[in-house]
Amino acid sequence: MDNIKHYEATSLDDAVSILAKGKGAVCAGGSDLMTYLKGFIVADPPTNIVDIKRISGLSYIKKDGDTLKIGALTTLYEIANSDDVKNNCPALAEAAGLVASPEIRFQGTIGGNICQKPRCIYYRNEFDDYPCKRKGESSMCYAVAGVNRYHSIFGLKDTCMAVCPSDTAPVLVAVGAKIVTTKKTWDAKDFFVIKGEQINSIDADEIVKEIQVPAAKKSVYKKFAFRKSIDFPLVSVAVAQTGSSAKVILGACFNEPYEIDAAEIAGGNFSEANAEAIAAKVDAKAKTTAQNKYKVQIAKTLIKRAILSLA
Amino acid sequence: MALPEMKVMGLGTPGNDKIRSFFMDDLLTGKPRFVGDRHFAGQLYAVAKHATVDHANITKIDASEALKVPGVVKVLTYDTNPEWARTAPILYKTVPFYGAPIALIIATDWYIAQRAVNLVKVDYEVLPAVIKTTDVMADDEAMTRDTSAPLSGRFADSNFQSSGVTNRGDVDAALKSAAYTRTISDMPWTTRYQHQPLEQYEALAYWSGDEVYVYIASQNIHGHHRSLHNWTGIPLNKLHVYSPGCGGGLGTRLNNPEALMAVFASKEVDGRPVLYKCTKKHSMLFGGRQFDARSVITIGCDKDGKLVALDVKYVCNGYGAGITPIFSKTLTIPNMRYEGTRLYLNDQDRCAWRCVNDPPTGYHFTHALDLVAEDLNMRPDEIRLKNIMGEHDVDQDSGLPFGTKEVNACLDKVLQESGFASKWHKPGTKKLADGRLHGIGVHCHHDSHGRIAGSDRATIVLMLQDGTAAVLDGGSAPHNQMTEQAIVAAEVLGLKIDDVKTPVYGNSDATLNGGMHGGSSFTGSTGGATMKAAEQCRKQVFEAACKNATFSAVNAKPEDLDSKDSVIFLKRDPSVKATFAAICSSALNPIGGIGHGWNNVDADGTGGLQRPKDGFEVGHNTEMGSACADVCEVAVDPETGEVEILEHWNAVGTGRVIYTDGVLQQMGSGTELQVNMALYYGDIKDIPTGNIIGTQYTESQMITTLDCNPSRYHLYPIEGDNHTGPLGAHGIGEPCVGGYCCILSAIYNAIGKWVDTDHGACNPDRVLKALGKA
């Protein structure tokens, strides 16, 4: 790797102060950051790496009334296997349990999962062969005229066709989770708005502390990937019914988690007809290419199967 | 016929410390053993800059900015050593394909060198490029000449590389009178693919005076030795090549240019050690790859599906893989014309693929037979059984016997074990209880891999005074091949397997040419050399024994003796015996043998049949190869296009099994590889730039062990007796894998459509496209 400075932060304040110097990056589990750095994927990479793993008090799953409070350093393995999470928000346990591979779930954290960089094949190409718009290095999105087989089926945002690769992001949006950072508390839907390279909108010196997940016992997550053992989603869907509302959120189909109107199931009628009706809405909104049209078919199938699984 | 009884061959898991050490102690515990893990004092690091156009003349290379970077020592180009650049695939002045190395950056740190790559500026005079076989095929003139005017292609003279033609009978007349004919031209594309070893492609070299020392992960250490000599003119005795370990990727660890790059770079920095290392991405850019093949097949049959004529036109890119017609050695076809053409393209040459002689040929073969069977209202197995060559048939073109031919037994086995006939149904007609579509497919072939081709290969066997034997086989790394050779030596000498050691490998100074290990010809070829060397030792040991008091007392002659379990005994009275240790420790002269292999066809009569077969005498030239058959059962989700392997049956003609676990490992890994190639993996080419961008495992969809379910893979070694191979053995490297073809055939049976794999695997999106849902 390039010459980097590695800081072992002792507190969040300590970590934030280092990030404020600029050219910083937070390292929690490191599973995304290490591939990012070792791939030389940007021309001017971060050089101040702030390791927050040793900051105490950031790894927990607590039940607080109807809300689950999950520390940012809680591993995906712990979330996937937590009875509290399984009982109160099964979709989140399912999503965490489907991230990457067992080894990465042992290492990777929920905070890292919602702060990872895009997985676009051009963005991630080693040694910065594709200085794209998302990196701020040009105005180009190479996927538009190139290989966009895995890319957005709902058009571009900010000239970028990459998708949000996080498994947990659509669940957090679907259940109306809140993300607590060192600066503020975000609604999940506002948090997952792209900003520069990021899949979220936090500042460079802002660190995720906690995820607050309201109970959503009627919730489910379905993921489709070519490989089952280790992969980012090609299409995923989270469906959650909370109170008198229901949300269907697609993952890996757009820059951000993408909502499909689900009024039909707000009252808990998870019928085949309603599932078909909601799935059909994907067609109306889709802006596909010849290479990624298949994702619409898979998205519709996952939506139907997810809704029917809640019946 | 019962096979001769063997003493050691066919063992399950013989001990071999070298293999255990490399695979279990080192790799599994993360201990570094590769070339790139070596760091000499004062070592420098080199990386290449790669061309970013398909075909061009380089008019200028400006390295001034790169040279300003602290730590960058030198930037080498074509002009640094034009003499070498003319004779070696090193730094090109005329770019032959995207990714070709055009400059070499040497720095004190690999990352510094890598970062400086983008600072080297190159001006190109872009030339027209030909990157598809179809571009060349469209030009009739280019297809019919071997020297011609430029076709805007890779080389100045022509895109044509070579061709092979098989002509048998009167194809035109037979097709004209056939009850049924069909021409199939819309063959699916096979996977774009590059071998990926555990470690990066890399080499380390330094000079000491005029002697050069080279470390490279190699499966052909003596091949590298000769290539470096041929490319650079460095005398062979001044070149020392070592291979400390090789993390797979076999098929591309042959004559790779990494060693040349390191030697070249070191020469330019006064002989200091230089490690040349590619990233995975860059090795894929200029390494050999499976890419482009087209065929047009016309089949003629009688109304019962008996083939009467076959006309095949086949075109593929680059050298490397063969264009041998597997049709002609698998099926009985009285009239056949096979025209195979290899082309140079402005793209990487193809590389070996562990499947058939040529993967597209295998797939096209299966595809065509299945279509004809369907037209004739037959099952796929029926048309194969009706036309498959008999075990004792001679080659239809040469008239030579086959050293071994097990394809019938393989096919019978997988059909029987899978219950194919009862499970097969008309394409697209069977649903499983969960709504998925059921499919089953079959493939079988006899292939020229596994042949005996070893007249240039040699092995040294030494008897030590403690009665143990040392085999120096010239192989390159501690893979199964060392166990194989130890077993062959133990079998011939009558030693316990634990009394045979393989102390030296990967060392061009201390061994003779052992050829290419990890290839399917190694077993038969180098095995022959080891057998001959061991026979010489055995003769000397028995002669020494006859001078020993134990045997001289009974006036024994060498022919009166035999040996087993490391004990030499009198045949007529086994109670008269002595250990190898007793004989070797008292022998007056050193005991050792040097053996060389042979070919299935040898002009001097040393090759061919080693034992009589089907009335043909010893020494008679033979056709060689090996065989496999596969059946696969799949379930296809019609809503997502996802394919699941339900069961897979793989039978391989093994010849005499030397090492049972090795055979099963080869078959098992081969089957997993085929599942990978058929359903998951595919490098991704960015058409606008010509770059290979699917260079990380994630994007290329390489499967992990968790995507495979070994309990569903049924492996059947079909043991035969190869009358040309050493002790009846032959290799099974490539022949064990026909799975790719039958998996795609099974998917066809499930959905009733052939999937266009579009240079990739049969991924769900492509299945959905075939189903009209994407």
Describe what you observe in this structure.
The complex is a heterodimer of chains A (311) and B (774). By secondary structure, chain A is an alpha+beta fold. Chain A contains twelve helices and twelve strands. Chain A has helices at residues 12-19, 31-38, 76-80, 83-88, 90-97, 102-107, 110-113, 142-145, 168-175, 188-191, 272-285, 294-309; strands at 5-8, 24-27, 48-51, 61-64, 67-71, 178-181, 185-187, 208-214, 218-224, 235-242, 245-251, 258-260. The radius of gyration of chain A is 19 Å and the shape is globular. The termini of chain A are far apart. Chain B has 774 residues and is an alpha+beta fold. Chain B folds into three domains: 17-28 and 453-596, 2-Layer Sandwich (Aldehyde Oxidoreductase, domain 4), CATH 3.30.365; 35-127 and 202-277, Alpha-Beta Complex (Aldehyde Oxidoreductase, domain 3), CATH 3.90.1170; 293-451 and 621-770, Aldehyde oxidase/xanthine dehydrogenase, molybdopterin binding domain (Aldehyde Oxidoreductase, domain 4), CATH 3.30.365.10. In chain B, the strands form seven sheets. Chain B has a seven-stranded mixed sheet. A five-stranded mixed sheet of chain B has the order 7-15-14-13-8, with helices on both faces. Chain B has a four-stranded mixed sheet with strand order 16-24-25-28, with helices on both faces. In chain B, helix 12 (359-375) packs parallel to helix 22, helix 16 (480-493) runs parallel beside helix 17 (522-546) and helix 20 packs across helix 22 (739-751). Residues 146-151 of chain B have low confidence and may be disordered.
